[in-house]
Amino acid sequence: xxxxxxxxxxxxxxxxxxxxxxxxxxxxxxxxxxxxxxxxxxxxxxxxxxxxxxxxxxxxxxxxxxxxxxxxxxxxxxxxxxxxxxxxxxxxxxxxxxxxxxxxxxxxxxxxxxxxxxxxxxxxxxxxxxxxxxxxxxxxxxxxxxxxxxxxxxxxxxxxxxxxxxxxxxxxxxxxxxxxxxxxxxxxxxxxxxxxxxxxxxxxxxxxxxxxxxxxxxxxxxxxxxxxxxxxxxxxxxxxxxxxxxxxxxxxxxxxxxxxxxxxxxxxxxxxxxxxxxxxxxxxxxxxxxxxxxxxxxxxxxxxxxxxxxxxxxxxxxx
Length: 319
Prior knowledge:
With 319 residues, the chain is an alpha/beta fold.
């Protein structure tokens, strides 16, 4: 997502009137998450729920429905009543799955109401200290000199971090072998132990290891350098046009009434201004967005097109 799309709404967008609140009912709002409890998506959803509740004047709860790369939760929301009581906090896989899965029980665009992109999460290419490359240019040269001899740890097949690596290979023309793991934590542990050599990881998952000198940061996936790592080049400096950040977005079912979707979206954007929410995002290494429904909808459609090329290049199949 480009920087111009990062538009935190002003406080005036927050829900304030009791009458407006009454229009979307008083039952608890459920945010379904297609990921297990404790991960970044779940943690973000719970912080969002806490911050949205007061703006809506309602209880907002999080319900975990992991499985099939987020598709189980997405399908439940696609089939839910469009009354504003059931929402989805999804992630980049919502766009990746459109190509990764031969068939889906829902349309990732038509069966949802896009409310807002909550945040983006830049990632970083890290290496075990034993890898004889200090930056992306040297890594590309090394990989071309040793085709098939280097490897990437992958926390989940079809994830945004997996596809970040595939996009890197596609654009640089290198042959690096994927080593899949069942989760980010074991992948990072093996990287630290030198069992694998390279990994695209969320900043929050490896920042402490980089600072401790246990991992080398070769490049960030954002178009420009990150303030947290001013001395780490953007991969795009060596590979023009490369950019890959995970994103988290809030959806409702299709055919929601305009006033209902507006109030829910406004509540989410209001939540993104709250200190506790901003602190949580910073802890996770995420950047708040809070764009308009129109911007978010257009972004999701562009992401489906973008990742389709990478998925097809990768040859990946759903687990």
